[in-house]
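Hi P.,

Sorry for the delay on this. The queue was packed all week, but I finally got your sequence through. Input first:
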Amino acid sequence: MATRTPVYFLSHGGPNIMYETSHPAYGKLRAIGRDITTRVRPRAVVVFSAHWQAARAGEIEVNVAEGGDLIYDFYGFPKQYYQEKFPNQGSEAVAKEVMDAVQAAEIGVRPVKRGLDHGVWASFKVAFDPEENPLNVPIVQASLFASEDPHQHYRLGQAVSNLRSQNIQIIVSGMAVHNLRDMFRGPQTQPYAASFDEALKQAVEASPDKREELMADLLKRSDARQAHPTFDHLLPIHVGAGAAGGDAGKRLWTLAEGSMSWAQYRFGEVAA
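Then the structure:
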């Protein structure tokens, strides 16, 4: 077992990924899930999702609920989507570890009780299929900040980085490129999807001592607001990069598709 768990960034897609078994991203998510359950073998998972921003400025929220509720925070899908289940449990004890780490970094934090949003449970249902590859450890979700400040989110990742030494798996969930407005333009890859996807790779795979600034500069690119009309799906990878500390980032796989990119990343290595 590695001394420190790796950090994963999942491009999670929409809830339809649960059904699109022939989509290339489906198999990639399953492979990451198998690595986590069979090679990393964490005692808990802490996850930050694009779909939860804190209600108050300057602080984050941490889910302390121990139940396994789900939030169906998507609209216009067939009825069966809203009947999907993903067995899970929280942990008040692990949530306290997260809050203690955040408070030690002088970041405000507030406990709340809620379910897992679809940025977590839909992709987790693929990665951690309850029948074939169950996770079987607590999942604690924490929010992003209410801001679009990449440095603030990077510092949040730094605050929770030491959880990795306690055999806690950190997963950050968003999309490498995410423009819902252009989804119906057709299947051809939008130029910004390819250009921003490559720029993200260059920034994430840069030397860790240069990574924060290079990743922050992504938000200033001329194609940034095309790739991400809002930055909520990009900021989770800033949390992940901060949590990585001195560990290198690596793009595991990518697919620029229409107005999206499905790139999956890992920071640090998995034990052989």
